[in-house]
């Protein structure tokens, strides 16, 4: 299984349902980004050099932060779903929430703070795929970081 | 697997010196901890006299993401030219550079 094929298929629902060696659900609170990083740090399948590993921690934190701040605010009582698996020469991570989709966020007035996180993800990750249907069906972000 | 506590290494301290307000930050700056850095900076500035420079020592920050960037941007908006960074770590420089914000912050080597 390689990242290009997953991205090309763009079938994030499939990735969401498929079994993965790291598969965790946790509360979307302000500790969620740190929790995601610690889960990945303890995931031994990831064989990335130090720099790529640091970038992976940042991009995953950005996706989780967006879920906490934008998908669920102000109630903030949702959950974050994190899955990770090894890729050829890299790692793939899926972050999914069931809050407001990005379409709702983009339609709001004022500067979109979601943009900063997305910019970091698109710069540091080898591939980023975002699926965010209109309405409140949630957002799924698939990130691939290669060595 | 026993999960270590979240944000175990984060620390922030304020020193109000005669000529500068120093905020020392260590560990991970993210959604959970960035507000504490901003709070410490404002607390230190409130204790200081007038227009003391506000220096953030970021040499011991081993992780930072957009939550930290937003906090730094807000401090820059509030403190303007009084704000300077001291020895930002590799983790800090990395996110400043990939977002094109590195040039927005002045740096000081000594304080």
At a glance:
The complex is a heterodimer of chains A (147) and B (111). Chain A is an alpha+beta fold.
Task: Reconstruct the topology from this structure.
The complex is a heterodimer of chains A (147) and B (111).
Chain A: H1 3-9, H2 12-17, E1 22-27, H3 32-41, H4 50-71, E2 79-87, E3 90-97, H5 102-106, H6 114-124, E4 127-131, E5 140-146
Antiparallel strand pairs in A: 1-2, 2-3, 3-5, 4-5
Helix pairs in contact in A: 3-4, 4-6
Chain B: E1 11-16, E2 21-29, H1 34-47, E3 54-64, H2 66-79, E4 83-86, H3 90-98
Parallel strand pairs in B: 2-3, 3-4
Antiparallel strand pairs in B: 1-2
Helix pairs in contact in B: 1-2
In words, what does this structure look like?
The complex is a heterodimer of chains A (147) and B (111). Chain A is of the alpha+beta class. Chain A is 41% helix and 24% strand. Chain A has helices at residues 3-9, 12-17, 32-41, 50-71, 102-106, 114-124, and strands at residues 22-27, 79-87, 90-97, 127-131, 140-146. Chain A has a five-stranded antiparallel beta sheet, with helices on both faces. Chain A is globular, with a radius of gyration of 14 Å. Chain B is α/β, with parallel strands linked by helices and 111 residues long. Chain B has a single domain (11-108), classed as STAS domain (Transcription Regulator spoIIAA). Helix content of chain B is 33%, strand content 27%. Chain B has three helices and four strands; from the N terminus they run E-E-H-E-H-E-H. Chain B has helices at residues 34-47, 66-79, 90-98; strands at residues 11-16, 21-29, 54-64, 83-86. Chain B has a four-stranded mixed beta sheet. In chain B, helix 2 links the parallel strand 3 and strand 4 (83-86). In chain B, helix 1 packs parallel to helix 2. The mean pLDDT of chain B is 92. Chain A binds chain B through residues 30-35, 37-39, 42, 54-55, 57-58, 61-62, 65, 68-69, 113, 116-117, 119-120, 123-124, and chain B through 1, 3-4, 6-7, 28, 30-32, 63, 65-67, 69-70, 91, 94-95, 98-99.
């Amino acid at each position: 299984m390689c990242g290009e094929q997953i991205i090309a298929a763009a079938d994030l629902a499939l990735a969401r349902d498929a079994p993965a060696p790291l598969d965790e659900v946790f509360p979307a609170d302000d500790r969620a980004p740190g929790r995601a990083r610690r889960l990945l740090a303890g995931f031994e399948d990831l064989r990335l050099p130090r720099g790529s590993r640091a970038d992976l921690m940042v991009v995953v934190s950005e996706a989780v932060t967006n879920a906490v701040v934008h998908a669920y605010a102000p109630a903030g009582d949702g959950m974050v779903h994190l899955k990770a698996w090894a890729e050829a020469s890299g790692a793939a991570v899926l972050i999914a929430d069931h809050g407001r989709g990005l379409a709702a966020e983009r339609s709001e007035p004022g500067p979109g703070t979601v943009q900063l996180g997305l910019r970091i993800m698109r710069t540091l990750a080898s591939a980023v795929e975002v699926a965010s249907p209109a309405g409140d069906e949630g957002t799924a972000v698939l990130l691939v970081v290669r060595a | 697997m026993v999960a270590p506590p979240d944000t175990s290494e984060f620390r922030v301290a304020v020193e109000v010196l005669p000529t500068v307000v120093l905020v020392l930050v260590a560990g991970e700056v993210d959604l959970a901890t960035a507000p504490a850095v901003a709070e410490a900076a404002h607390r230190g500035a409130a204790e200081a006299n007038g227009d003391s420079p506000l220096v953030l020592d970021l040499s011991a920050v081993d992780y930072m993401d957009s939550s930290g960037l937003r906090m730094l941007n807000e401090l820059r908006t509030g403190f303007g030219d009084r704000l300077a960074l001291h020895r930002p770590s590799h983790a800090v420089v990395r996110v400043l550079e990939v977002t094109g914000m590195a040039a927005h912050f002045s740096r000081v080597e000594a304080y």
